[in-house]
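Worked example 4.2. Below are the chains of a multi-component assembly; read each line carefully before continuing.
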Amino acid sequence: MLWGGKMINIIKNTIKKELELFLFNTYNQEIEITVEKPKNQKMGDISIPVFSAVKVLRKPLPQVVETISEQIKNSEYYNYFDKINSVSGFINITLNKGIFAKSIIKEVQQTKNFGESNLGEGKTIVMDYSSPNIAKPFSVGHLRSTVIGHAIGNILEKLNYEVVRVNHLGDFGTQFGKIIYAYLNHGDKDKVEENPIEELMKLYVDFHERAKEDPSIEDEARKIFKELEQGNPKYVKLWEHFREVSLEEYMKVYEILDVKFNSYNGEAFYNDKMKAVVDELIEKNLLVKDEGAMIVSLSDNLPPALIQKSDGSTLYITRDLAALFYRKNTYDFDEVLYVVGNEQKLHFTQLREVVKTMGYDYYEDIHHINFGLVLQDGKKMATRKGKIVRLMDVLQEAKKLSLNYINEKNPTLENKEEIAEKVGVSAIVFNDLKNYRANDIEFNLSDMVNFVGQTGPYLQYTSVRITSIIEENVIDKENLDYKLYTSDASFELIKTIDEYPEILIKAKEEYSPSILAKYLLTLASYFNTYYAQEKVMVEDLIERNTKLFLISIVRDILDDGMKLLGMQVIKKM
RNA sequence: GACUCGGUAGCUCAGCUGGAUAGAGCAACGGCCUUCUAAGCCGUCGGUCGGGGGUUCGAAUCCCUUCCGAGUCGCCA
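Applying the procedure described above to all two chains together yields the following structure tokens:
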């Protein structure tokens, strides 16, 4: 990991400051010194390129190397260093493994909730994620927003942020005009009762087919939506019903994923809060009529934001503005995160700009946590054409394959079904989180349910292996032999343990669960190497205890990290 | 056409605030279960970092240009 661990960063920053101060005092020159991790571990643990100093000081390279190397000996952390050598302009420091390992293990011992931070103390972050569109099946596309949002929320809480999780249901808009139109004109009420989501989806697809033949029905749909917005009781009743049956279906998914929200206020919730937004825009002289619609002009070559349609009904951004103001007033957030796909980038840029134009400073706290599309055959999945992959189908498939694995690898396992679901679902979740969120992903079932290599099951399996070694053993944290932590395999583990707190902070800064996901893979991989090299349950009690303690730390981090990612932690598999 | 994001090994991706021989996993091939779960471990094979310029002691990383892919671009969300 490039950013290093907590302990090693303290050492690196200290060296940096010490050297910069020394150079300033000696040569009266401000020289930036970079202290980094060598690419190759054989070169040491800390590396200092001296090229920048050579350039500024205009002295021969060997002389600069000599001067800086000598100065390093005066470092506060000199007793941590085993050796200092130089190779072609780099000064490399190798740490004393025993001292370094001990300081890290002590740190872990003294920390109750390892990895937490006071970064978020007293700060509130509102998160808008999952947000499926009512009357459509929960697709693999919705999964991304759900698991990315869930994971980021968990990481924020670990860093002591107050997190408000909002499921901003797509329960309003012209699409409901379409569905209601289709339902009233071509719908089979019995079929819809029987299998609401599927039938409503079919009606929606059917509507677009018909609209190709007869575009006038689009106007019909818009008219119905406008009346719905104004409270036509017949339409409102239908809409309420559709919303209810959809939510029921979604709750099943959320239960499987173990995802919970503080609020399910969707777009419709803001129906009566938009007039205030429009009024404020008028008052601030920002709203202008253009081609019949009401728009806000934006700078920076941005297309204008459409606030109101020609017929007076509202649009997406109008509802998002109302939602934003409501959230600011209700939660007084420090940041608001919208976990929404790449394709809405322009929308959120416009949203920010409108807020800025209205004179609110907190436009800077609005973050679009964009993620890549789930593509099919290289193209965006089109709901309107009914091309959709249902998440439930994928989860079922994952569970089935997971069960096959269990029957093959561990046929006597108890609660096979339960474990199979936990492994299968976690595999899907991890697969969605392991890569940088903004990358598009091609839908590929066999990738999603892969259980070998850099996968969710690999992490679970590693944790399970550790659990099975520890079993009923009681670990005495005070009775450790730190010398045993200096073997290559142990030391790699310890250096990686040291990185956990920094990784979580990095994941927050980038709003990127993949940073944590990749880290857990690295940690698991080092453990499995360790496992192959060293026997834990040895005769010598101190050695056994020392090793048990190390692997228990690894297990705790793995389990903690998996929970943060929204995966299931298991004891056996 | 404009704007945004992407192009790194056969495949999926890390690395991108410039540093030393470009890293993983999968696939392929070869080893390792009478030592704690082999969903694992070890090894081999595999790359002109899309192409071309530039800046620099040093470029996958920064700048310019070009090609390719995806997405978006006023009355959908």
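Take a moment to check your reading of the output against the notes. The CA atoms of residues 82 and 96 of chain A lie 5 Å apart. The longest strand of chain A covers residues 81-87.
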